Structures are given as structure tokens and as C-alpha cells.
């Protein structure tokens, strides 16, 4: 089970939550995801918007989808260190594979085979060149 340290901003205090039931984790995750995505869209302010209504909608949707991409790629705002480009690419590929119905385990096996094949081909080419 995961332990969470939750800051109570108004009090400058924090509480620890651990061993939450799955229904509570589902609620908190859904609530947090909704809040995070809506927070991203909130950076586009209606009162100061100078474009058309359609442009406003597009701008809000783009900000929200940027946040969705960050969450899917494992680079949420406030993460301590940004993931390397290779890690981000690997997470994107894994997410795409899972979306296509391939399990993470199956994808890992496929990827390992592709890397092994590429390494073998590079070694073979190096031998020919020598």
C-alpha cells in the first residue's frame, strides 16, 4: 500500500494517509485528475481573452490536453526532475502500445527483441567494416 503525506494548506500542517481502500483511491485519483486538468485550462482567462469564442475553446482544450500528455508521459507539473527524453519516449510508446491492446509485458518483450536485433545487426555491420 502507498502512504500519502497531505498538506492542509490553511493550517500549515499535514496528515498521513495509508492503507486506503480501493474505492477511496479511485475517488481521490479521479478527483485529482479532474482538478489537475481543469487547473491547466484555467490558465486561459476568459475575461482577458481577445480572440474569438472558437479560439478560446481551442486554447483551453490545448492547455488541458498538454496536461493530459504530461500525466500520460510521467512528467506531471511539479515533478522533481523532468524525465529524460528517452524515458518520455519510452512512456509514450508504452502508452500507445497499451492503447492498442498490447500489454506492458508484451510490449517490453517486443522492444527487447527489437533492441537485440538492432544490436546484432550493428555488430554484424561493424565486423564487415573491419
Features:
2 domains; 130 residues; 2 strands
Fold and architecture overview:
There is one protein chain. This protein has helices at 22-41, 53-73, 85-99, 104-129, and strands at 3-8, 13-18. With 130 residues, the protein is mainly alpha-helical. The protein has two domains: 1-82, no CATH class; 83-130. It has a two-stranded antiparallel ribbon. A hairpin with a 4-residue loop joins strand 1 (3-8) and strand 2 (13-18). Helix 1 (22-41) crosses helix 2. The termini are far apart. The mean pLDDT is 88.
Q: Summed up, what is this model?
A:
The protein has 130 residues and is mainly alpha-helical.
Distance between the termini: 55 Å
Q: On the 0-100 scale, what is the average pLDDT? A: 88
Radius of gyration: 22 Å
- In order across it, which strands form the biggest sheet? 1-2
| Structure summary, number of beta strands | 2
What's the topology here?
Blueprint: E1 3-8, E2 13-18, H1 22-41, H2 53-73, H3 85-99, H4 104-129
Antiparallel strand pairs: 1-2
Helix pairs in contact: 1-2
